[in-house]
Design a protein that fits this description.
Layout lengths: L2 H7 L2 E7 L4 E4 L1 H6 L7 E4 H5 L4 H17 L3 E8 L5 E15 L5 E12 L15 H20 L3 H10 L9 E8 L2 E8 L12 E2 L5 H8 L3 E3 L2 H7 L4 H5 L5 E9 L2 E10 L7 H38 L10 E8 L10 E7 L5 E8 L4 H19 L4 H25 L9 E8 L5 E7 L5 E3 L5 E3 L4 E2 L12 E5 L5 E5 L1 H5 L5 H18 L7 H14 L9 H4 L5 E8 L18 E7 L6 H12 L6 H21 L4 E8 L6 E8 L19 H8 L2 E6 L4 E8 L8
Parallel strand pairs: 17-20
Antiparallel strand pairs: 1-2, 1-6, 2-3, 4-5, 5-6, 7-8, 7-12, 8-9, 10-11, 11-12, 13-23, 14-15, 15-16, 16-17, 17-21, 18-19, 18-22, 22-23, 24-25, 25-26, 26-28, 27-28
Helix pairs in contact: 4-10, 5-10, 11-12, 14-15, 17-18, 18-19
Length: about 725
């Protein structure tokens, strides 16, 4: 008796579905079950498709695709419709996909299987494979959406594994999970859940040739479903003793595939029997795909973080050995996004003279190219400084070096349109004498340094400067000299610390000044580590809590890189050395040079005096001081050929201080008292000092003279 006759006797039809030709061959019984005449027939795919319920057709498409991928049977329930859209009967289809290759070399398949009528389950009864209900489908879709969202948000391999362990699949849920990775020809356990510590031992560093389900899944790229211990023991007898001790009864091993490459395997183990129906296999396969993609994203992110950390460690040098009489602290905080490295840097360079140099700079951009240029420029600056060049010569050579790099890149950009345009860099170079506290500053388009005095007053120190590095190769960089007094702290920073958060230079400095002024109390006064705590306070004022090198979600919110360096000269009330031995308030002093070629710095002199006397009791007196300073400095620039040197010093207790301001120049000509008319534009300087100052005078010097005035807070004169 023929096989077809036997199947027809038990109401079972045969069909053959050729995906390449788009035709379906039916025997007589299969044609009858589909509502067609009971005779063998070959029909177009569309004609057969029209006999199925649309919802069931969508389901069987997914089931067949899953069976093709796994090499398993495709089993489904299908409702057969008549021409009027009524359900004729329900059939069960079981078919085996056979993969083959089409004429153009692409993979294809055909299905060979059976179709058999079944009775619908009555209310209150169950069936092994029930039709997919709307509620179950909605639950599955909601689960997959939630799982996909959670896995997409995981930022590390550990987070991915935690998400995978917390997944509760609709209708069935594994209680043991393991993720296997591949390194060369070895299988290893990346993570697991539902097992004790050390249980992964036998499965770590396992050869891929081992007769173990996960190893076979990696070798073949096909899922393995073991519905019972008997299945496991029959298929993998060599490694069954390893799995037996965990008291599980069903296992699913699925490949983790990304871009056609099997990167590992995922095991889901069950203490309750699982039949692994097509719907359950579909859910497991979808989760495995999402898990593979999440693990790949996490691996890339971890590699980027590792690369970022390595770049930061290599490009951000340590501050070196301690310097007698000085304390130094520094922070670097990268911008968010990308590799979290950029163009900001700092450095401390020992010099042949026994001094040391502090350097801080910012290469335009926040990407890897900026970081690469920064690394080259930092090495060049260190080399020029180590040769013993003065600050202005170091920056001049660095500018030529960067301009040369930019020129070569510009020529490359003409040949390669992907090469970006040249970039520039700002830089501040400070040569420090730790014995005397003398600082020589050269500045290339960078923000000025700020100094916190011993009583907490913060002044921005205006310094002479030139263009940013790399713009004009032969730029001159004048040097500004001043002294860091015992107990004072100098801050160098990049513009990211100032302007982040929508601030401009003025409002950003005001924010940092408040932090610096309050830093003595908040950072712990005279306690050790004060300077480190103050550096943290400055970064927290912009971004919140931070560490020496900050990454992660906090870094993602940053608008620009930040580099900040603090230099404290040990002394009275500095917070980084010994406490003051006497209660007297230290003098508050500032010094500023206004060159003939820079008359615009007169405004800086006025601002400097206001900052020095920010807590002066009488506002009218302060206005008078600013007016006299402006007149004195302007007279030097107008009536002499030299520069003006401004020195202002306030001594005494608050409310009873004495202010002395001196403006020195190189001319021997003494000022004369004049009687200007109403329309005169000059000649009032001496008259103003007679009217506004408590005392004033002119002191001749060996070369030049010094004009000075004194003012007592609230006009309180000393007893005579």
């Amino acid at each position: 008796m023929r096989t077809e006759d036997v199947l027809a006797a038990v109401a079972t039809g045969l069909w053959r579905w050729d995906n390449a030709s788009g035709t379906v061959s039916l025997d007589g019984e299969a044609a009858r079950l589909l509502g067609l005449p009971a005779e063998p027939v070959v029909l177009p795919e569309a004609a057969v498709r029209s006999r199925f319920h649309p919802v069931d057709w969508n389901e069987i498409n997914g089931i067949v695709s899953l069976a093709v991928a796994e090499g398993t049977l495709a089993e489904a329930r299908l409702r057969i419709m008549d021409v009027d859209g009524r359900v004729l009967r329900t059939v069960r289809s079981r078919s085996k996909p056979l993969q083959r290759w089409s004429a153009d070399g692409s993979p294809d398949y055909e299905l060979i299987g059976t179709i058999q009528e079944i009775a619908e389950p009555q209310p209150g009864t169950t069936a092994v494979h029930t039709p997919i209900t709307g509620d179950w489908r909605r639950s599955r879709e909601a689960f997959l959406l939630d799982a996909g969202r959670a896995l997409a948000e995981a930022r590390s391999t550990a987070e991915v594994l935690r998400v995978a362990a917390s997944l509760s699949m609709p209708g069935f849920s594994p209680d043991g999970l393991a993720v296997f990775g591949v390194a060369g020809d070895r299988l290893s356990v990346i993570g697991h859940h539902g097992h004790d510590a050390g249980d992964e031992g036998p499965f770590t560093d396992m050869p891929l040739e081992t007769d173990y389900p996960a190893a076979e899944v990696v070798r073949t790229g096909r899922a393995i479903y073991l519905a019972s211990p008997e299945d496991y023991k029959r298929r993998f007898p060599a490694t069954w003793p390893l799995a037996q001790r965990f008291d599980r009864v069903s296992w699913a091993f699925l490949p983790l595939i990304v871009a056609g490459r099997t990167m590992g395997a995922w095991m889901a183990a069950f203490k309750q029997p699982a039949s692994f129906s097509p719907d359950e296999r579909s859910v497991l396969t979808t989760v495995a795909r999402m898990l593979a993609q999440a693990l790949q994203r996490a691996g890339v992110a971890e590699s980027e973080r590792e690369l970022t950390t390595g770049l930061q460690r290599s490009m951000m040098p340590q501050l070196g050995p301690e310097i007698p009489g000085m304390r130094i602290a520094a922070r670097y905080v990268p911008t968010g996004g990308g590799l979290q490295v950029g163009g900001d840097w700092y450095d401390m360079i020992p010099l042949p003279s026994g001094r040391f140099a502090l350097v801080i700079g910012d290469v335009q951009g926040h990407d890897v190219r900026a970081a690469g240029l920064m690394g080259q420029l930092r090495i060049a600056v260190r080399a020029y400084a180590s040769e013993g060049h003065r600050p202005d010569a170091v920056l001049s050579r660095a500018s030529r070096f960067l301009a040369g790099l930019c020129a070569s890149q510009e020529s490359g950009a003409q040949e390669d349109p992907d090469v970006q345009s040249p970039r520039f860099a700002t830089c501040l170079y400070v040569e420090c004498d730790p014995r005397t506290g003398t600082l020589e500053v050269a500045r290339a388009g960078h923000p000025d340094p700020a100094v916190r005095m011993t009583d907490g007053t913060v002044l921005m120190r205006p310094t002479a400067g030139g263009l940013p590095l790399g713009i004009v190769p032969d730029t001159d960089y004048p040097t500004t000299r001043f002294t860091l007094e015992p107990g004072e702290t100098m801050m160098l920073c990049t513009d990211g610390l100032i302007e982040t958060g929508g601030h401009d230079l003025d409002t950003g400095w005001a924010r940092l000044r408040a932090v610096l002024e309050a830093g003595t109390h908040e950072a712990g006064g005279h306690e050790d580590g004060h300077l480190e705590a103050l550096a943290d306070l400055l970064v927290q004022a912009v971004h919140g809590p931070s560490s020496h090198h900050t990454t992660g979600p906090l870094a993602d919110r940053r608008e620009d890189d930040i580099a900040v360096v603090l230099l404290c000269r040990e002394g009275a009330a500095c917070g980084c050395g010994a406490p003051v031995a006497h209660p007297a308030r230290p003098a508050r002093r500032t010094m500023l040079t206004v060159a003939q070629a820079e008359p615009e710095r007169i405004a800086g002199a006025r601002r400097q005096v206001r900052e020095l006397l920010h807590d002066w009791a009488d506002e009218e007196q302060l206005d008078a001081v600013v007016l006299m300073v402006s007149e004195m400095v302007t007279n030097v620039l107008v009536h002499t050929d030299g520069d003006a040197l401004l020195v202002a010093e306030a001594v005494g207790e608050l409310g009873e201080r004495r202010l002395r301001v001196e403006v020195a120049d190189s001319s021997d000509e003494l000022p004369h008292k004049r009687h200007p008319g109403e329309m005169a534009s000059s000649g009032r300087g001496v008259l103003l000092m007679e009217m506004l100052a408590d005392a004033w005078g002119v002191d001749p010097r060996g070369e030049g003279k010094s004009i000075w005035f004194e003012l007592y807070e609230q006009s309180k004169r000393p007893d005579t």
